[in-house]
Amino acid sequence: xxxxxxxxxxxxxxxxxxxxxxxxxxxxxxxxxxxxxxxxxxxxxxxxxxxxxxxxxxxxxxxxxxxxxxxxxxxxxxxxxxxxxxxxxxxxxxxxxxxxxxxxxxxxxxxxxxxxxxxxxxxxxxxxxxxxxxxxxxxxxxxxxxxxxxxxxxxxxxxxxxxxxxxxxxxxxxxxxxxxxxxxxxxxxxxxxxxxxxxxxxxxxxxxxxxxxxxxxxxxxxxxxxxxxxxxxxxxxxxxxxxxxxxxxxxxxxxxxxxxxxxxxxxxxxxxxxxxxxxxxxxxxxxxxxxxxxxxxxxxxxxxxxxxxxxxxxxxxxxxxxxxxxxxxxxxxxxxxxxxxxxxxxxxxxxxxxxxxxxxxxxxxxxxxxxxxxxxxxxxxxxxxxxxxxxxxxxxxxxxxxxxxxxxxxxxxxxxxxxxxxxxxxxxxxxxxxxxxxxxxxxxxxxxxxxxxxxxxxxxxxxxxxxxxxxxxxxxxxxxxxxxxxxxxxxxxxxxxxxxxxxxxxxxxxxxxxxxxxxxxxxxxxxxxxxxxxxxxxxxxxxxxxxxxxxxxxxxxxxxxxxxxxxxxxxxxxxxxxxxxxxxxxxxxxxxxxxxxxxxxxxxxxxxxxxxxxxxxxxxxxxxxxxxx
Length: 629
Hints:
The protein is of the alpha/beta class. It has 21 helices and 26 strands.
């Protein structure tokens, strides 16, 4: 019944939820402080983010029905499994997204912050979300959690947590439709062309906000060239860290609160144990009998590839690394398996251009802190092992698309593609045996829809906020995709998807269960598409043989954070062959004519936030490097 409501009807209720959250701000701040040790300053922005999610997803709910070339079909059930470190914003965002997409929601808050979760559910029920549509559950043991998460009736699962948690969930159900943001090991590069004063401020805030318990926290700073020997930078950094007022949140002056639980294992090791060649510049200390209040720590001498360099500790620790050049620093920044947030402090346009061309992260920050993403302004989600599923960003324009199923519909777009590659490929298809069927009309409408999607969404950077003092650009970066058309797939569906990849300027590898016409195959190979014919059994064997190693494209090119666009009727076999590994995203929806949907697998979303002023005066150094509308 909820799914049959129009997007406008669901949006009206979501907007009431936004107002209700605003009215209960004080209650949420109190519970977050009591359960999670959130200071008022940290908790207040969380409540604002939850309100933003309500209004933004209400708007997207209305937009779902406007997509040309496909009809939304709401899924029956979405399960939301959020973390404890953002106990209001992330749970509210996940629940509201599922509701906005027309799905019923089971909401399982983190055990540590169950009271905050209960308050969020209460607020939503009071605002008009039916209790039959939103269920709050408390899982009392692992067996119950496994039963809930692996249940075949779960159509989507929104997870925010560790990558290991995603692996566990997929081990319980290998075809679980898992969407979410996982771990991060994030760093900020500071070059000699940085403003040292601002860099220190942003490094400290990024490292120690919420006691370093943010997945976006800047746990490493990489100093380039002369900055590594700068006494001024070092003195200001140590003074700033040492002067943080560390206290429980009932102290109104608290700048850094406690960790949520007494440190154990990995975090305790990070707070107490140095790696080879490392030394404490500011040594963490346990401050009271609770075992949860620790002073912040700064270690220097972190070596490339060391435990500290590669490990997410989730606590108040900052490590210092050094590099001779910006290129070397970028290599250090990209080295961890994760790619959530990354920062650069530099006022040099050439350095910015180099960094933007090479950095591997979903949220990029220039001359500002790397935490505190804001709905729509800086939609949030990572690359590599920092994301699971579709890669669409929370608080971004495509998030609800991934939470919906889609039925084919005839596109009405009439845009003409500007891609020479697409035009030439389309001409070959028209002159082949496929050009004499209704299939070609289907393909041609899809190409027009792709062109419209490129002209209106994917082909340029977006800055919808237009703040002036800060540039916030959402851009789409082409990414390599393995397209698999099984033995049941039609040639028309296969070519429609491949043309969407070409329209996105993405590298495409194509594996088909049935060979395409020879002239069509020839033009695809001439356009750089890696092509092979494999039976369904052979393809499953190929995936299974790579299930424990990085999946590779047909010619052996490594695919980082691999994406497979599967066309066929047995997606379960693909997940099973892969062993459920969460770092491979499988797109298995029916093929539609909608470019807004079909181009998404071939594009990675990247949010770039750049401070655009110097002490209130406009600073346009980034405008020649990255443009936006």
